[in-house]
Protein backbone atom coordinates (compact mmCIF):
# COMPACT_ATOMS: atom_id res chain seq x y z
CA UNK A 1 0.00 0.00 0.00
CA UNK A 2 1.30 3.43 -0.88
CA UNK A 3 2.33 5.82 1.84
CA UNK A 4 0.05 8.70 2.59
CA UNK A 5 -3.22 6.76 2.29
CA UNK A 6 -6.22 8.89 3.19
CA UNK A 7 -9.75 7.73 3.87
CA UNK A 8 -12.12 8.87 1.14
CA UNK A 9 -15.68 10.04 1.71
CA UNK A 10 -18.30 11.36 -0.69
CA UNK A 11 -20.06 13.29 2.09
CA UNK A 12 -19.20 16.93 2.69
CA UNK A 13 -20.40 16.95 6.30
CA UNK A 14 -17.94 14.21 7.28
CA UNK A 15 -15.07 16.68 6.96
CA UNK A 16 -16.55 19.37 9.20
CA UNK A 17 -14.62 20.16 12.37
CA UNK A 18 -17.09 20.96 15.11
CA UNK A 19 -17.04 24.35 16.84
CA UNK A 20 -14.58 25.85 14.36
CA UNK A 21 -15.70 28.86 12.32
CA UNK A 22 -14.65 28.76 8.69
CA UNK A 23 -14.51 31.49 6.06
CA UNK A 24 -14.77 28.98 3.20
CA UNK A 25 -18.09 27.36 4.07
CA UNK A 26 -21.29 27.86 6.07
CA UNK A 27 -22.86 25.03 8.06
CA UNK A 28 -26.34 24.71 9.61
CA UNK A 29 -27.47 21.65 11.56
CA UNK A 30 -31.09 20.73 12.34
CA UNK A 31 -32.19 17.81 14.49
CA UNK A 32 -35.54 16.33 15.52
CA UNK A 33 -36.62 13.02 17.03
CA UNK A 34 -36.25 11.15 13.73
CA UNK A 35 -33.69 12.83 11.46
CA UNK A 36 -30.60 14.99 11.47
CA UNK A 37 -29.93 17.45 8.63
CA UNK A 38 -26.67 19.19 7.77
CA UNK A 39 -26.77 21.99 5.21
CA UNK A 40 -23.40 23.16 3.91
CA UNK A 41 -22.77 26.04 1.54
CA UNK A 42 -19.20 25.91 0.24
CA UNK A 43 -18.19 29.47 -0.58
CA UNK A 44 -14.74 29.01 -2.07
CA UNK A 45 -13.09 26.66 -4.54
CA UNK A 46 -10.27 26.27 -2.02
CA UNK A 47 -11.76 24.97 1.24
CA UNK A 48 -11.03 22.70 4.19
CA UNK A 49 -13.64 20.18 3.08
CA UNK A 50 -11.99 19.48 -0.25
CA UNK A 51 -15.36 19.77 -2.00
CA UNK A 52 -16.47 21.73 -5.05
CA UNK A 53 -18.06 25.12 -4.50
CA UNK A 54 -21.83 24.80 -4.07
CA UNK A 55 -24.54 23.42 -1.78
CA UNK A 56 -24.66 20.10 0.07
CA UNK A 57 -27.50 18.74 2.20
CA UNK A 58 -27.33 15.50 4.17
CA UNK A 59 -30.39 13.83 5.67
CA UNK A 60 -29.62 11.12 8.21
CA UNK A 61 -31.70 8.75 10.28
CA UNK A 62 -30.54 5.86 12.42
CA UNK A 63 -34.14 4.57 12.31
CA UNK A 64 -34.40 3.74 8.60
CA UNK A 65 -36.39 0.60 9.47
CA UNK A 66 -39.04 2.75 11.16
CA UNK A 67 -41.91 3.82 8.89
CA UNK A 68 -42.37 7.20 10.57
CA UNK A 69 -38.66 7.98 10.26
CA UNK A 70 -38.80 7.14 6.55
CA UNK A 71 -41.70 9.54 6.05
CA UNK A 72 -39.71 12.30 7.76
CA UNK A 73 -36.80 11.57 5.44
CA UNK A 74 -39.05 11.70 2.38
CA UNK A 75 -40.46 15.07 3.40
CA UNK A 76 -36.98 16.43 4.15
CA UNK A 77 -35.70 15.17 0.78
CA UNK A 78 -38.61 16.79 -1.06
CA UNK A 79 -38.17 20.12 0.72
CA UNK A 80 -34.40 20.05 0.17
CA UNK A 81 -34.86 19.46 -3.56
CA UNK A 82 -37.27 22.39 -3.77
CA UNK A 83 -34.83 24.59 -1.86
CA UNK A 84 -31.92 23.46 -4.05
CA UNK A 85 -33.93 24.28 -7.16
CA UNK A 86 -34.66 27.76 -5.85
CA UNK A 87 -31.00 28.39 -5.00
CA UNK A 88 -30.11 27.38 -8.56
CA UNK A 89 -32.75 29.83 -9.85
CA UNK A 90 -34.51 27.09 -11.83
CA UNK A 91 -38.09 26.37 -12.84
CA UNK A 92 -37.54 23.11 -14.71
CA UNK A 93 -40.36 21.60 -16.76
CA UNK A 94 -38.31 19.01 -18.63
CA UNK A 95 -36.18 16.75 -16.43
CA UNK A 96 -33.90 13.80 -17.12
CA UNK A 97 -33.51 11.38 -14.21
CA UNK A 98 -30.40 9.20 -14.37
CA UNK A 99 -30.05 6.07 -12.23
CA UNK A 100 -26.33 5.37 -11.98
CA UNK A 101 -24.89 2.02 -10.99
CA UNK A 102 -25.15 -1.73 -11.54
CA UNK A 103 -28.55 -3.14 -10.65
CA UNK A 104 -27.08 -6.65 -10.29
CA UNK A 105 -24.81 -5.64 -7.40
CA UNK A 106 -26.93 -4.84 -4.37
CA UNK A 107 -24.70 -2.15 -2.89
CA UNK A 108 -24.56 -0.40 -6.28
CA UNK A 109 -28.19 -0.91 -7.31
CA UNK A 110 -29.73 2.16 -5.69
CA UNK A 111 -29.67 4.38 -8.78
CA UNK A 112 -31.27 1.93 -11.23
CA UNK A 113 -33.89 0.81 -8.71
CA UNK A 114 -34.88 4.38 -7.84
CA UNK A 115 -35.09 5.19 -11.55
CA UNK A 116 -37.46 2.24 -12.01
CA UNK A 117 -39.81 3.80 -9.43
CA UNK A 118 -39.90 7.30 -10.93
CA UNK A 119 -43.10 8.31 -12.70
CA UNK A 120 -42.14 8.74 -16.38
CA UNK A 121 -44.25 11.20 -18.40
CA UNK A 122 -42.15 12.27 -21.39
CA UNK A 123 -43.87 9.88 -23.80
CA UNK A 124 -47.27 11.13 -22.64
CA UNK A 125 -46.25 14.74 -23.21
CA UNK A 126 -45.30 13.87 -26.78
CA UNK A 127 -48.56 12.10 -27.50
CA UNK A 128 -51.17 14.21 -25.72
CA UNK A 129 -51.90 17.75 -24.56
CA UNK A 130 -49.91 18.86 -21.53
CA UNK A 131 -53.17 20.10 -19.96
CA UNK A 132 -54.16 16.47 -19.46
CA UNK A 133 -51.12 15.97 -17.23
CA UNK A 134 -51.52 19.04 -15.06
CA UNK A 135 -49.49 18.73 -11.87
CA UNK A 136 -46.66 16.78 -13.52
CA UNK A 137 -43.42 17.65 -15.24
CA UNK A 138 -42.04 16.25 -18.48
CA UNK A 139 -39.81 13.49 -17.09
CA UNK A 140 -37.63 10.96 -18.87
CA UNK A 141 -35.53 8.28 -17.15
CA UNK A 142 -32.19 6.77 -18.12
CA UNK A 143 -30.39 3.76 -16.65
CA UNK A 144 -27.03 3.78 -18.45
CA UNK A 145 -25.53 0.80 -16.60
CA UNK A 146 -21.78 0.63 -16.04
CA UNK A 147 -18.85 0.33 -18.42
CA UNK A 148 -18.48 -3.39 -17.68
CA UNK A 149 -21.99 -3.92 -19.05
CA UNK A 150 -22.00 -1.53 -21.99
CA UNK A 151 -18.36 -0.97 -22.92
CA UNK A 152 -19.15 2.75 -22.99
CA UNK A 153 -18.39 5.62 -20.65
CA UNK A 154 -21.48 6.47 -18.62
CA UNK A 155 -20.80 10.13 -19.32
CA UNK A 156 -20.93 9.52 -23.08
CA UNK A 157 -24.35 7.87 -22.85
CA UNK A 158 -25.81 10.58 -20.62
CA UNK A 159 -24.42 13.42 -22.71
CA UNK A 160 -25.84 11.90 -25.91
CA UNK A 161 -29.29 11.45 -24.38
CA UNK A 162 -29.22 14.95 -22.85
CA UNK A 163 -28.38 16.48 -26.23
CA UNK A 164 -31.36 14.68 -27.78
CA UNK A 165 -33.86 15.24 -24.94
CA UNK A 166 -32.69 18.79 -24.06
CA UNK A 167 -33.71 18.78 -20.36
CA UNK A 168 -33.85 21.87 -18.15
CA UNK A 169 -32.40 19.80 -15.30
CA UNK A 170 -30.67 16.46 -14.79
CA UNK A 171 -31.14 14.55 -11.52
CA UNK A 172 -28.53 11.82 -11.00
CA UNK A 173 -28.83 9.14 -8.31
CA UNK A 174 -25.90 7.00 -7.18
CA UNK A 175 -24.45 4.93 -4.34
CA UNK A 176 -21.78 6.70 -2.29
CA UNK A 177 -19.02 5.83 0.17
CA UNK A 178 -18.92 6.97 3.79
CA UNK A 179 -16.01 7.03 6.23
CA UNK A 180 -18.35 6.38 9.18
CA UNK A 181 -19.63 2.82 9.63
CA UNK A 182 -22.75 3.95 11.50
CA UNK A 183 -23.90 5.99 8.47
CA UNK A 184 -24.05 3.10 5.98
CA UNK A 185 -27.64 2.92 4.67
CA UNK A 186 -28.56 5.79 6.99
CA UNK A 187 -27.77 9.02 5.13
CA UNK A 188 -28.80 10.70 1.87
CA UNK A 189 -26.85 13.60 0.37
CA UNK A 190 -28.08 16.14 -2.18
CA UNK A 191 -25.77 18.54 -3.98
CA UNK A 192 -25.71 20.85 -6.99
CA UNK A 193 -22.01 20.43 -7.76
CA UNK A 194 -22.03 17.15 -9.65
CA UNK A 195 -21.18 13.49 -9.22
CA UNK A 196 -18.64 10.94 -10.43
CA UNK A 197 -20.16 7.58 -11.48
CA UNK A 198 -18.42 4.75 -9.64
CA UNK A 199 -17.14 6.98 -6.85
CA UNK A 200 -18.72 4.78 -4.18
CA UNK A 201 -16.37 1.91 -5.07
CA UNK A 202 -13.38 4.09 -5.96
CA UNK A 203 -13.83 3.51 -9.70
CA UNK A 204 -13.97 7.15 -10.76
CA UNK A 205 -15.35 7.83 -14.23
CA UNK A 206 -15.89 11.10 -16.10
CA UNK A 207 -17.61 13.63 -13.81
CA UNK A 208 -21.22 14.62 -14.37
CA UNK A 209 -21.71 18.34 -13.75
CA UNK A 210 -22.95 21.54 -15.32
CA UNK A 211 -19.44 22.16 -16.64
CA UNK A 212 -19.31 18.82 -18.47
CA UNK A 213 -22.95 18.41 -19.54
CA UNK A 214 -23.94 22.10 -19.97
CA UNK A 215 -27.17 21.30 -18.11
CA UNK A 216 -27.93 22.14 -14.43
CA UNK A 217 -27.58 19.01 -12.32
CA UNK A 218 -28.71 17.87 -8.89
CA UNK A 219 -27.05 14.76 -7.48
CA UNK A 220 -28.67 12.46 -4.93
CA UNK A 221 -26.47 9.90 -3.22
CA UNK A 222 -26.87 7.35 -0.44
CA UNK A 223 -24.10 5.86 1.68
CA UNK A 224 -24.13 2.13 0.89
CA UNK A 225 -20.45 1.21 1.31
CA UNK A 226 -17.32 2.00 3.26
CA UNK A 227 -13.72 0.80 2.99
CA UNK A 228 -11.42 -1.36 5.09
CA UNK A 229 -9.27 1.75 5.52
CA UNK A 230 -12.20 3.74 6.89
CA UNK A 231 -13.14 0.99 9.35
CA UNK A 232 -9.55 0.65 10.54
CA UNK A 233 -9.09 4.41 10.87
CA UNK A 234 -12.29 4.81 12.87
CA UNK A 235 -11.38 1.93 15.19
CA UNK A 236 -7.91 3.33 15.85
CA UNK A 237 -9.19 6.86 16.42
CA UNK A 238 -11.81 5.59 18.87
CA UNK A 239 -9.19 3.60 20.78
CA UNK A 240 -7.61 6.79 22.13
CA UNK A 241 -4.07 5.54 21.53
CA UNK A 242 -1.34 6.88 19.25
CA UNK A 243 -2.20 4.91 16.14
CA UNK A 244 0.22 6.42 13.60
CA UNK A 245 2.81 3.65 13.68
CA UNK A 246 0.19 0.90 13.80
CA UNK A 247 -1.74 2.42 10.90
CA UNK A 248 1.43 2.64 8.81
CA UNK A 249 1.91 -1.10 9.42
CA UNK A 250 -1.60 -1.82 8.18
CA UNK A 251 -0.91 0.27 5.08
CA UNK A 252 1.81 -2.19 4.14
CA UNK A 253 -0.05 -5.39 4.96
CA UNK A 254 -3.76 -4.69 4.30
CA UNK A 255 -5.73 -3.75 1.20
CA UNK A 256 -7.27 -0.65 2.73
CA UNK A 257 -9.15 0.26 -0.46
CA UNK A 258 -11.35 -2.85 -0.33
CA UNK A 259 -15.05 -1.90 -0.25
CA UNK A 260 -17.49 -3.49 2.20
CA UNK A 261 -21.22 -3.32 2.81
CA UNK A 262 -23.40 -4.78 5.62
CA UNK A 263 -25.23 -8.10 5.36
CA UNK A 264 -28.50 -6.18 5.93
CA UNK A 265 -28.01 -4.44 2.56
CA UNK A 266 -30.80 -6.33 0.75
CA UNK A 267 -33.54 -5.43 3.21
CA UNK A 268 -32.37 -1.87 3.84
CA UNK A 269 -31.96 -1.11 0.14
CA UNK A 270 -35.74 -1.49 -0.24
CA UNK A 271 -36.28 1.24 2.35
CA UNK A 272 -33.68 3.51 0.74
CA UNK A 273 -35.20 3.09 -2.71
CA UNK A 274 -38.62 3.92 -1.28
CA UNK A 275 -37.36 7.06 0.48
CA UNK A 276 -35.46 8.44 -2.50
CA UNK A 277 -38.05 7.57 -5.15
CA UNK A 278 -40.96 8.97 -3.12
CA UNK A 279 -39.13 12.20 -2.31
CA UNK A 280 -38.09 12.55 -5.94
CA UNK A 281 -41.58 11.85 -7.29
CA UNK A 282 -43.04 14.52 -5.02
CA UNK A 283 -40.46 16.96 -6.35
CA UNK A 284 -41.09 16.04 -9.98
CA UNK A 285 -44.88 15.85 -9.83
CA UNK A 286 -45.97 17.88 -6.76
CA UNK A 287 -49.62 18.40 -7.71
CA UNK A 288 -50.44 15.13 -9.43
CA UNK A 289 -53.28 13.77 -7.29
CA UNK A 290 -52.91 10.13 -8.42
CA UNK A 291 -49.22 9.87 -7.53
From TrEMBL:
Pfam families in UniProt: Peptidase_A25
Known EC number: 3.4.24.78
Source organism of this protein record: Amedibacillus dolichus
Signal peptide stretch: none
Name used for this protein in its record: GPR endopeptidase
Molecular function via GO: peptidase activity
Keywords: Hydrolase, Protease, Zymogen
Domain of life: Bacteria
One BP term from GO: spore germination
Amino acid sequence: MKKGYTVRSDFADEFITKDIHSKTYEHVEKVNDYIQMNTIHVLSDENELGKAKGDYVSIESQSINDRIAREYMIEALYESLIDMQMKMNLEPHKILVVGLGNRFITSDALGPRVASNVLVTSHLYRLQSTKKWKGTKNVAVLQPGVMGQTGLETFTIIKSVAEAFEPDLIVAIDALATRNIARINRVVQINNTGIQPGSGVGNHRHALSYETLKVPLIAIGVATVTSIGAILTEALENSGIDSKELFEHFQETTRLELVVTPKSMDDELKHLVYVVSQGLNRFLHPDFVNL
